[in-house]
Amino acid sequence: MTDVLVITQGPLAGRRIDLQGELVIGRQGAALTIEDSELSRRHAAVRPAGDGYEVEDLDSLNGTYVNGRRIDSPTRLAGGDAIKLGKSVLELEAAHAPATVASATPLAPPPAVAAPAPSEPFGTYAVPVTKGRRRGIASRQLGPLLASWAVVAATAVALVIYFADH
User: Fold this and answer.
1) Residues 6+ apart with CB under 8 A from 31
2) pTM of the entire structure?
3) pLDDT (tens digit per residue) in 37-50
4) Sheet-wide strand order for 16-18
């Protein structure tokens, strides 16, 4: 019997995926494609690691969460662990228990703590610092932005030449 990822929430809820090697999950061009605007094209990878599995975020914009905690490095999975990617939640069903006790202990979600009321007025909060390079919509719009400015500059030069002759 093989280990299985069960999609418990999201567009593909109820689907079961047998894990037989590395599984890349994303919005496009991935082994498991999920139509979700919150996923990156190649969002995360689940791969064999020793006698179990690990999940790695592939520099996604919105991050990958294991048991409610955002991960920034490959993270070991145990049976029952929940992986959140965008709107989808996947749960690992292990066919066998891992050999080590440490890897079998699932991470507990952080305790719920009421956030204190902000002391600053609305709109003055600092932007959170992120690691690595973000590859969001702005980076995909650089080409069209430069093309527009080239058209504006060419039009300005043409107008200068036209009015200089007249």
Assistant:
1) 22, 23, 24, 25
2) 0.56
3) 899 999 999 999 88
4) 16-18, 4-9, 88-93, 82-85, 64-66, 69-70
